[in-house]
Every structure is written in structure tokens, then in C-alpha cells.
Amino acid sequence: MFTSLAEKLQNTLRRLRGKGKLGEKDVDLALREIRLALLEADVNFKVVKDFVGGIRERAVGEEVRRSLTPGQQVVKIVHEELTALMGHQQSKITLSGSPAVIMLAGLQGSGKTTTAVKLAVNLSKGGRKPLLAAADTYRPGAAEQLQVLADSAKLPCYRNDGAGPVQICREAVRLADREGYEPVILDTAGRLHLDDAMMDELKKIKAQLKPAELLLVVDAMTGQDAVTAASSFHEALGLTGVILTKLDGDARGGAALSVRAVTGRPIKFAGVGEKIDALEPFHPERMASRILGMGDLLTLIEKAEAGFDQEKARKLEQKLRRQEFTLDDFREQLQQLRQMGNMEDILAMLPAAQIPKDLRRMQVDEKQFQRIDAVITSMTPAERSNPSMINSSRRRRIAGGSGTTVQDVNRLLTQFSQMQKLFKQMGTLEKKGFKHTGRGKRGFPFF
Length: 447
Hints:
This protein is α/β, with parallel strands linked by helices. It has three domains: 3-85, SRP54, nucleotide-binding domain (Four Helix Bundle (Hemerythrin (Met), subunit A), Up-down Bundle); 101-291, P-loop containing nucleotide triphosphate hydrolases (Rossmann fold), CATH 3.40.50; 297-431, Signal recognition particle, SRP54 subunit, M-domain (434 Repressor (Amino-terminal Domain), Orthogonal Bundle), CATH 1.10.260. It is built from 21 helices and eight strands. It has helices at 3-17, 24-40, 45-59, 62-65, 70-85, 112-125, 142-152, 165-179, 196-209, 224-237, 254-263, 284-291, 297-307, 310-321, 327-340, 343-348, 357-360, 366-377, 381-385, 392-402, 406-431; strands spanning 101-105, 131-135, 157-158, 184-188, 213-219, 241-245, 267-271, 279-281. The chain is flat, with a radius of gyration of 25 Å. The two termini are 27 Å apart. Mean pLDDT is 81; it is low at 434-447.
């Protein structure tokens, strides 16, 4: 997510931090690099112009001149302006009406149907009883896709394959009113391109159902096309917010940084994976921190608390304090980390300066998990407790017993060492005074 943009911005700001004094030439050179990085990330050029102008106005003013650390002050300004660009603070979803209705709109291929289920899963975790409505009667298999995804998430889905979109939406709301479902999430039809017929249909649904939220689902990988679509939808329908999909892919980030500025409507959720629970509330300040390499500890904590067993976490804490972390613990922790998302995303939430480069490059995919489990299972209890005793002959035996190679065994032992570094680094962050409000002294549930 934003990998190229993040690296360029971090490198530019790192040079500023090292300067004792900053003149206008220093600021202008840095702003030129920031401007180029944003344009290469496909950020709208008008947005870039206003963004860079706002930074320059503050960076060459008294705010920086009077600072004892001008470089750090400029970094602070960039962080604040980047946060403001994406919406200042989290915009929560509104659920008004009885039952509340959430209407999703978007172009075909934006991930709208999958997002409808992800949103329902997200709301159900908060105690809601959402009902999905299959209102896309145009795309072959759309209703069936929604039904299958809803069934996999154990969520109710209303279908009426012989009816029109407006009728389906009305019937779904009536069903929800009778059965106590709320909210009703309408998966409306998309098109390959914007057209009047699509907009007219969406306007009819909006007029009759009066949704509490009208959310546009936008594919972040489409760049400026996403911003153009958002502008057109908002002008025709009056959006209340945006959901960005595929932020976990190779998106350059332009849509995320442009869509709010262009439409004036907040980004409420972001899709960060293919699984049905891979939808997160969008926090502008946290996203700005991640882009600038400052980490996103609050999101990491929330993910950890949701995925980690508290009793196991307490036992692990005791082992870590006694330096008794074994390969069995390593396997168990990998399984729990697996529930939080991929390792690259997790490491991206930690401050870049605190994580060793070799650790940042560590990757653990599905096949690696299987190999890790096989390798650890082939070890003796003594070897799992004390990996330092695993010499060359033992490595060959373990590789043969697990159906892997010696290189796989070596890789596992290296990753085990890296995991120890990660836990040690998290402990260091806590000792430096990081505290998560409302969680007491322990910054992480597993420390």
C-alpha cells in the first residue's frame, strides 16, 4: 500500500531532519521532490498544487523559523497536511431510519458485491444484524455471487431474480422491518462506464428508500479514473462517503489522496485484502503516519486484540520475560499473526526507523506456513526448545523428515530469529513510554 510514494516521501523528509537550519531553497527542493512523488502516485494535479502550496506557506513561516528542530517541524507540517488531505479524522458510518439503509454504488469491477459482504461482516461484529439485498439484475451471476458470499459469512441475503432493482430493494426493506434486520445493504448494479440509464435507476432507488448512507465503491488501482467516477457519481446522486477497495494491491495511492479532496466526501472504509473480514475503517491520521514511515501502532493493537487469545498472550509474556520463547511458541504466534493479515502489512504498521531492513523484507505466505508447520513437527522437543543445538546433521534429518530442503530449515531458523527481534523491538517501544489509551500500561496485548 503506497509503497513507492511512502519510500520517496520518507527519503525526502529524512534529509530535512538532518539539517540544523532550513532556508527557502531547502524547503523548495524538498517540496519539488514531494510534488513529483505525488504526481507519480497519480494524485490529481490540482490536489497536488494545493497540498504543496499549503505546506510551503507554513514551512517558510514563523512556525518553522522559531523551531529548535526545523526539519522535524516540517515533517510535522507534512503529516498534518497529509492528514487533512484525507479528511482530518475518521468518519463513522451513519445508521438512521428504521430499518437503516446503506446503498452501495460503483462501476462494474470495483469490487462492490464483495465489499457489500465485507461491510455486513464488519457491522455484524458491532452487534448489528445486517441484511444483504441482491439488486444487481444486469451482471450475470451477480445475485448468485452475493448469495454465496453471504452464505459463507452466515449472513442473510434477499433475492428475487424475477423482479426489477427498485422492487427488490423495497421488498428487502420490508423483510428487514418484519424480521428485525438492520441495516439493509443494497448491492446495486454497476456498469462498465457511466451512463444516464444507470444513474436514473440509482436515483429512483435513492428517492424511494432514502438511504442513511450512499457509499461509492472505488477501485484504488484505477487512479485518476476513480476520481473522475467519484466526481460524476457525487454530482448525480449526492454521496455520503466512499469505500476504497484493493488498497492492499499495487495501487499507487492517488485515488486515496485525491478522492476526498475532489468530492468533499469522506473515505469511510478501505478494503485491504480478499477475505470477507478484510475491510477496515479509514483513519486519515493513521494512514498519513504509515505513508510517512511513522507506523500505525493503534491499528496494530486493534488487530492484535481481535486476533490474539488473551490467556495465551499472558503466558507468552511470561515466557518472553524469562527468555523462554521456543519454536512451538513461534509456530503458535505465526498462526495468530496469520489471522491479523499478511506480515508485510503488519510490519508496515511499525515505525520504519525501529525495524531492521532484513526484518522488513520478511515474507510469510500460505505455502511457507505449511512448510514451517512440517519442519517444526519434524523436530524433537529438545530441538524446538533450544534451536541453537540444531547443527548441520540435524538440519538434514529435519529436512528429510518434513519433506522439505535444508534451505527451508535454514530459512525457518532465520525467521525464528527475526521474530525474536520483532518482539524485542515491540518491548523497546513500550519501555520508551508508548501507551494505548484505555489499555493500561501494556501497549500490546501480547506484552
